[in-house]
Amino acid sequence: MQFVTDLIAYRELMAVLAWKNIALRYKQSFMGILWAVLKPVVLVLIFMVLRSFVGIESGPIPYPVLTYSALTLWIFFQESASEGVTSVVGNANLIRKIYFPREVFPLTSVITKLLELSINLCILAALMAWYGIGPTWQVLWVPLLVLYAILAALTISFIGAALNVYYRDVSTALPVLLSLVMYMSPVIYPLALVKEKLLVEQAASHWSNLIYTLFTLNPLAGLIDAFQNVTLRGLPPDAGAVLPGLIFTLALLPFSYLFFKRAESYFADVI
Amino acid sequence: MAIIEVDHVTKEFQLGQLTSLKQAALNTARRLTGRPVEERKPFKALDDISFSVEEGEVLGIIGHNGAGKSTLLKLLANISKPTRGSVRVHGKVAPLIEVGAGLVGDLTGRENIYLNGSILGISKAEINRKFDDIVAFAELEEFIDTPIKRYSSGMQVRLGFSIATSVESDILIVDEVLAVGDLAFQRKCMDRIDSVIREKRSTVLLVTHNIRHVERICSRAILMDHGQLRSDGEPNLVCNEFYQLSEETVRRHHAEAHKGRHETTGDLELVEAQVLDADGLPTETIPCDAPVTIRLVYEAHAAIDRPVFGVGIQTPDFLNIATTHSVPEQTTLHLAPGRHEVRFSFARFPLMPGVYCIRTGVAAGNLYTTLFYAESVATVRVEPREIIHAESLREGFIPMEGNWSILPTDTPSPSLAAQAA
What we know:
Order of helices and strands of chain A: HHHHHHHHHHHHH
Oligomer: heterodimer
Order of helices and strands of chain B: EHEEHEEHHHEHEHEEHEEEEEEEEEEEHH
Number of strands of chain B: 20
Strand content of chain B: 25-35%
Helix content of chain A: over 70%
Radius of gyration of chain A: 19 Å
Largest sheet of chain B: 6 strands, mixed
Number of helices of chain A: 13
Strand content of chain A: under 5%
Distance between the termini of chain B: 55 Å
Number of strands of chain A: 0
Shape of chain A: globular
Mean pLDDT of chain B: 81
Largest sheet of chain A: none
């Protein structure tokens, strides 16, 4: 509950810090905010080339818009988490001098990324229009899915940021870990492919169902699939794919937060 | 009610680096095999400190480097937590621990005011209201839309100070920030802090090496020494104890190594320097007003024509108080190679109690070319003749002699008479 009251008390500070992050990133850059769009576009192109060699079954939805939709959410999650983890160490000068609840830093990282997310959502809408995919009422799920992505990113950010103060190895290891998670999430391929292999074809014999559940424990697996469902397919989220990851995230988040709050008192001494 | 309560607070730090993977593995192996683990000794930055501050008090915290002053302030500002004991602060704290912490070079002055204001806990509406004041105090009207990386360091500090002092708070914590900016701005900062004290009746904690500020504005002072509270009370008394402590340190350093400034052309060398008391015996302490002789032995390596000897008195912080030359005796003097003794005698040593350093030099010829110059060749401690409260406090260097006259007067002063007419 303390968390929620802090959130309200420090909303202005977080807004100003987020504005600072954005202003600083684009102040002395020629392309400015265009960089936010360039990253997913380049990745989509790479995936398209890759797909022409390997052949990934993507169903009736055109592949570029399918991966763009996946990348929109994935990049938001990945950048929120990695900037959240480095946010505390990155603000060492403030931590040593001024007190305010330290969770402001990971939270600000997420808020900062909301801007780029909304730009990418606009591009996605434009792509959908180009390919003639009309939105349905299911689109109303999007805010909830974004909230879920935020919670997943914060689960990693809190514990990662606290550990990073003591061992900088965390920020070095994180990009490797996150790219691993990306390949384990349905970004390049649709979740339907995994589902069919495991649940219908039972490719791993009697282990198949267990492996599928483990696969969906990764919050991003259910999340990306649900996002593609509500934006492109006009379907509600697939509860079977979403729930394992959601329960896992909601169970870990309190521990991650409490760990952060316990470590917080020593940040100024160790950093 | 006490606004700040510090109760048996100890703060320890681990010395050295964090344990690496290798060290951790070695320690685990040692633990498993039952051998003693390599433990690092904690360093006590604060050692069982207790005190409380009442509302409206202006507390000065003084002490040498590493005495634990800044650690204490960090605990009070909630930046760090005590290892043992408790710190209770009832009210909003505005820390001026480092002015300009969180100023961002790429942002303009205007943007930085909003950013830094929010970091210090000022709401946006309040910043809007105070914006012009902040800019005016920092004297930055012309440059407010320039990125502050183009500012001079003085301008940045002015901006930082101006933002930080506009925070409305119950407790203001000031750490060494007044040592920045030019003299005029330092004065302005002191006036601002004075007005905070007088008008807003805030509680102020001031950490500084500038003892004069403490004596001037504090209502109470604390002297810290190696993490412990050495004394607590009247600013004048506490500051005086600090002076004595530092003077002892200066004398000890001087005894350990001859490290004062030292220049010579090689024609002449100082062999011995002593302070002699009334009986002609070498001494380090003399009572106030006593006769004193400074004895110097020089060795000349070559013949020196018409030398001039100089002797001067300095404070330990290199303020020259008095200097004298042997010019009138110069005309006939001719120094043959060999040792020569030079004496300068005071009928009575003219300075107030404290520690003083002796400097000396030799020049020669029509152009007074300097052949030798050295500082801190000897130190002398002047002690008060009687332990009278007023005399034992340093309130200057030179005793003023003269006569007081306090008489009733019947005739009104001329200006009053003119007004009446």
